[in-house]
Amino acid sequence: MNQIKSYIAEHKERFLTELIDILKIPSISADKAYKKDVLKTADTIKYSLEKVGCDTVEICKTDGYPIVYAQKIIDKNLPTILVYGHYDVQPPDPINLWDSPPFEPVIKKTDKHPDGAIFARGACDDKGQMYMHVKAMEFMTATNQLPCNVKFMIEGEEEVGSANLATFVKNNTEKLKNDVILISDTGMIANNVPSITTGLRGLSYVEVEVTGPNRDLHSGLYGGAVANPINILTKMIASLHDENNHITIPGFYDNVEELSQQERAEMAKAPFNLDAYKKALDINAVYGETGYTTNERNSIRPTLDVNGIWGGYTGEGAKTVIASKAYAKISMRLVPNQDWQNITKLFKTHFENIAPQGVTVKVTPHHGGQGYVTPIDSVGYKAASKAYQDTFGKTPIPQRSGGSIPIVALFEQELKSKTILMGFGLDSDAIHSPNEHFGVWNYLKGIETIPLFYKYFTELSR
């Protein structure tokens, strides 16, 4: 413990500088204009893994962005930990809401991060958390304390659905063979309340298009006489929830896992201040499905949300027009046992069926993934719990997350191994939002905790 703390203290500024340099690269996988930057980031990660002592490091090409693979095998009789992370980031829009440029990282103090936080797109999701593992590897190799084998698989398409990762995993099961998968792409309850994510929601993401007349029309000459696609689209979207905020798609809840009252009571033990939650978001009330608490709504219940909607004239001033088309992007967060492909089909059928005459509807599926729950009695979970106990001084709380990492279920299906989700971010870190940040304390705490997971996982696996 003292040795890792001393090592971090000695190299703290370099650790921060290296991360900041990576955060400066706008590796936006959703925008083809940034292709060179995404590829540059992959090369940077490759170089970093070579420097920290991996014996094999390679850029693995896919039909999209490459996967950086690395390994260090010290003894085939010892356990193997596979570390997964991603180097791509979300688009930074809306730029005008950032207090500082998204790819010009700055360190500032906040209420939640009195030691400072790095503000930049990708700081928490996932460059900062991914790079904790690289620096933890550096410590273990530099001090000759790597207790087992390690493999790294860092991809560049997580933010656009990991479409090519599935093919890579299926074609490389022997190469990726492991005893446990370790991921830091989640968060914890608070810096003084450590937690380990034990469940993730699945995802179905679609785009809808409503078409009315064959061209934009003058709203005076045609208003009231033809269907307005924007009006129709908003009515259709509004009908997807009833008065209790229950999703109205037939069959949507058929396979939803219903937790017992005992399980819900255990979840309720996690510290949560509703007033502080509302204050942090500057809202006067919470909102959601009747009969469930806020923490249940955003973790164990499925949801349907509009992520973007557009059509017609949105420029400065007025233009009296009935648009020919209207669009929306819609995501559905799913719970275990809901199959994302089936949910996508149910949505498509329902949305097409509720379209009135006068318009046509097109539903385009984008991507999705299954939900996941990991047991808390596994060797991996016990090792993670012991690691947190050492560095935080208290036992972490198992917690289900509302977010999705679709490839986790794929890993279990193809590689037959469990995933441990050791996240060090906070809910307030604004991932996917303007002013995303990651606490300096959290970054360094992750580097301190991860080597202990290696130690305890190796010991408990004997």
Automatic annotation (TrEMBL):
Protease as a keyword of this entry, yes or no, is: yes
**One Pfam family this chain carries?**
Peptidase_M20
Q: Give the matching InterPro entries.
A: Bact_exopeptidase_dim_dom, Cyt/Met_Dipeptidase, Peptidase_M20, Peptidase_M20_dimer
Q: Where is the Peptidase M20 dimerisation domain?
A: 199-358
What are the protein's GO molecular function terms? metal ion binding; peptidase activity
Q: Which UniProt keywords apply?
A: Hydrolase, Metal-binding, Protease
- Gene3D superfamilies from the entry? 3.30.70.360, Zn peptidases
Example GO biological process term? proteolysis
This chain belongs to the protein called: Acetylornithine deacetylase/Succinyl-diaminopimelate desuccinylase
